[in-house]
User: Fold these one by one.
Assistant:
Number 1:
Amino acid sequence: MNAKPSAEARVVRLDDTLDTHQQVELLGPGRAVLTFTWRSLLKIRHVPEQLLDAVLYPVLFVLMFVYVLGGAISGTPEDYLQYALPGILAQTIIFLTIYTAMTINADIQKGVFERYRTQPVWRPAHLVGALLADMLRYGIATVLTLIVGFVLGYRASGGLLGVLAGVGLLFLFCFALSWMWLVVGLKVRTPSAVQGVSVLILFPLTFVSSAYAPPETMPTWLQAFVNVNPVTHVVDTLRDFMNNEATLSGVLILLGMTAVIIAIFAPIALRIYNRIS
């Protein structure tokens, strides 16, 4: 038969508990983001099939668009490749931005989200870590797109620095765009719904742009949309850097759009994230 603990023993255990709580260290923003980034990368290592879209899309998109549309639009696939490769690269990376929102939505559905809310970490680290981990996905898709393009004959007159600068701005824009999909991912109920809503928005934005055809060849009423379409500015800036024709005004417009998207959607996503139950 167990004897009841004495009052002195209960005081000792209470002191131990208080000491334990005092030893819990709040994980700061930097370490918390790195922890969640590493967690997302581990998920890719355990399920490498997640990278199939980043591996297959670039190859399929380049081959399909160049050899199916190249002769009709530019006369030869080789000429069209010089125009279309930056657009294909931009479209490929932009479509990959929806993956972060699908990951967060899946965490919510599985209950992992509630577990994270109890951890002594910087609250937005879960979202920011997932966003940074997807940069690996963007990098793989970019390298494969460029390799396939170079094998088929694409040449960037802007050189390696031009390509890196253009890709860097593209990644920055995609990081901002991911915050918009996070709002969708935190509001809808399933990952498939996230994909459905995001693709519904992305299809007109990417295809009704300067990615695959010059706006001058389109009807006047359609040019009005194409010229204000943010994807057109992203594609044009990337193409200018790769062709050594970049301008300061083009860079500033793209940076401005990126800042506006983050300023609008990051606070909304964080507000929903903190209030979601």
Note: The chain has twelve helices and no strands.
Number 2:
Amino acid sequence: MSSITQPRPAGAGGPAASPGSHTPPGVNGAKLFNRLCAVCLTLFALIWLVPFAWALITSLRPDGSITANPTSPFAGGWSLHAYSYAWDTYPIGSWYLNSLVIGALAVVFTVAFCSMAGFALAFLRFPGRNVLLALVTAGLMLPTEALILPQFIEYRSLHLLGTYWALVLPSVAAPVSVFIFQAFFKGIPVPLIEAARIDGASWWRVYWTICMPICRPAVSTVSILTFINSWNAFLWPLLVLNQTKSQTIPVGLASLVNNSNIQYAEVMASSVLGFLPLIAVFLVFQRRIVQGVATTGIK
């Protein structure tokens, strides 16, 4: 009767692997894939970080040395003169305040209205629900530039041009935010909702006391994405805000670049002051951003 001999594991008291033995191909493939991913991540990180580092270094250099040696970051020495000059010359504080107020209002109204819309599409059954869902889906496919002219005519007829509401209201009706909330609400077990309804809870109580505390990652994701999009918006604020002190950070920085005599150090210093709040937001909420985006992708 023949018997099957099992191979001994290497290093477990058995003979050592011979120099010519082959390592399983899956191990080398995994290591090679990990190294390839690390190289790609490093390359893309450098592509993203080099402009920021260049802007920061240029903002610390004198204008004369930038013009004479634009590619030498250490020529002419470093100083903070461009920051003090830009802050004292341009209304950067007003631009900060405008962007902050508009971003905060956009976050509050977007979370409130889009969460209620996502809740209705996830749990409520009403006539025209599928049509409404199709309209929201169509909103994802329309480019933002195609909506600028109709929105401009609409807000001009409502006499909202030149006000904060002209910037806040378009970001409130964000189809992607509605879909994020709908995906999270659909992940809530239906028996939990039915038990609450049997106990006499109204739909508003189900939404506010049961669903919203569970959907904190969705709230964080929508809040952070809305604030970043509102802070970085350029074309629409450029059209609806025409006064210098009512402009936002991106529009204000663009007005500095359009001057005939460009002072590179001041422009770069203003740019650094413009994206510093976003870096602070990312560093503070980094964990929630990664968690929210990952959970949204899973949904």
Note: The CA atoms of residues 84 and 238 lie 26 Å apart.
Number 3:
Amino acid sequence: MWDTAFFALELTISGLLVGLMYSLVALGFVLIYKASGVFNFAQGDMTFLAALGLAALSVKLPLWVGVIIIIGVMVALAMAIERIVLKPLVARPPLVLFMATIGIAFFLQGLAQGVWGTQPRGLNLGVADETYEIAGIFVSSLDILGAIVAGVLVVVLVWFFQKTKTGRALRAVSDDHEAALSVGIPLRKAWGITWAIAGIVAIVAGALWGTRVGVQASLALLALKALPVLILGGIDSIPGAIIGGLIIGATENLAEGLLGPMVGGGIKNFFPYLLALIVLGVRPYGLFGREIIERV
């Protein structure tokens, strides 16, 4: 009995650490959805592009130089997307914008592989992948690093949106586009800033996941892993993305470790989506999402 409880505790802790890294991917979706009301299908491909570029540059340049270059690339990319794709689609139905992000996703994946090649690459952040024993529980050094980075990034984002003038303007845009325009907040500039922030979040997520699992095209599928996190936490809630990631990370680990041996394993692949379906039936807008009420 004690052994099972201790095993469950170990699974929960390792799941929580991985869950924070899920939250990083989900944060990119939340930021763009809050500012523009668009589900950005390209977020996973932005993560892949950032990770592949960083892996390619880090072979020839110091890591910090590669990070600066990739930040410049992602910010320039955000500005280009705003000018070339979003500007002509202002006031169009959300479905049109969603389809545009699908096109952006395939373009980014082709662009990344066209510039930096199609071969899988490793990414070294200078942190050895070692396992530490803390109070009898084994924890990966990469998981600890990911959790620390994710925690710091969340604190910075919360401070930015709560305390800075630009952050408050972005929140106003997310609440009501027309009201924000009426008080002089430029909608297009807000979209550009939001995509740039989402691009920087993609760099952090891509660097951590690329170090953990390697940089390859399948990294773009991380977007699918973020879906149950968004459904659970709420697609328009930054705290929801964090708590949703923690819940998904812990419960999928527990399901795989405790129930997997009884049914042959593989539960980890579908359990988050099963949990998301249950939440959809009870709270369609997620645990922390905003319930939109339209009065007729």
Note: The mean pLDDT is 82.
Number 4:
Amino acid sequence: MKKSYYGEFGGQFVPETAMFALKDLEKAFHEIAFLKDFKKELKDLLKNYVGRKTPLYFARNLSKHFGHEIYLKREDLNHTGAHKINNALAQVLLAKKMGKKKVIAETGAGQHGLATATAAALLGLECEIYMGETDMQRQALNVYKIELLGARVVGIKNGLKTLKEATTAALQTWINEIEKSFYVIGSAVGPYPYPQIVAHFQSIIGKETKKQLKKLGKKADMIIACVGGGSNAVGIFYEFIEDKKVRLIGVEAGGLGVDTPYHAATLTKGRTGIIHGMKTKVLQDELGNILPVHSISAGLDYPGIGPIHAHLFESKRASYYAVSDDECIEALKFLCKKEGILSAIESAHALAILPKICKDLSKKSVIVVNLSGRGDKDIETIKAYKKGRIYG
């Protein structure tokens, strides 16, 4: 097996000009990111700037309702409001150490764009964020925050004007400016070594979770996370992959239903193909054309998935389910009422699988749900959903 592959997935499907940059990136990652000084500087920033470690919160009311011990890993309490800052801060720090002057990023829900703009402001690098115009409208608050931080938001007008088009545009710009720019990829996707880099920097979520459970005298029976590209999921899964007693569950965006054209359930309905420089599972037609996708969540509205997840799916190490927009909103509302926490719409997908999973468990279980982000960015979408009938 080539080192750039996970099972049959991964690889580097990019123009020759980008191959040199990927080799430089891989070399720099191994030479810089494991140095004592880099790790010390990043650890200090994560603690004193981001606010890590995030709590592992025992959700007492959810636990009582579902009859199991349910813990929420509170990535929503990070600075900028999501897990995205872990990876963005680390990659921007790596870019600075490599002597780059500018960072480029794509974003869907806006959280990765916000995290990258924040890190660039802190570390003094020029920043450009690519975002589909549809996502700019539904995540207008994050667009405003990104611009306040001094970054330029580049609106993408073609296609569905969402994350896929933004990622394509960001990759093309990076290849054109490869000497001076660093592409801060937001999820565990893209050509190798990006999936490995993102998994490495996000694995802090799983490492903390395992230590926090141990301190409580608990062992996880199940880890649940939402998946679009899959960065928060791979972050919390990574530390538990070798522990076969722990069930790993990813939850995809089922949109209006996986039997309709309006979903983003890549592992549930996709086939092996190529997208954004990687071989993975892709939603495509019989001719290999990438299909349009739909989700109420801008962050999960993506027709591919990270190759690590494709491998975990094919090897059956992890299970993946799809939940609908309706189920997601119901879960979001339920968490608000039961625990007083407003999660991101993305994270609510992970919560929405609890009613289906919990009723079939044969024993009382310890379940950790990764709450990847907070929901203030989604207020307008939630209010508008079904003409404001969410609380009706």
Note: The longest strand covers residues 247-255.
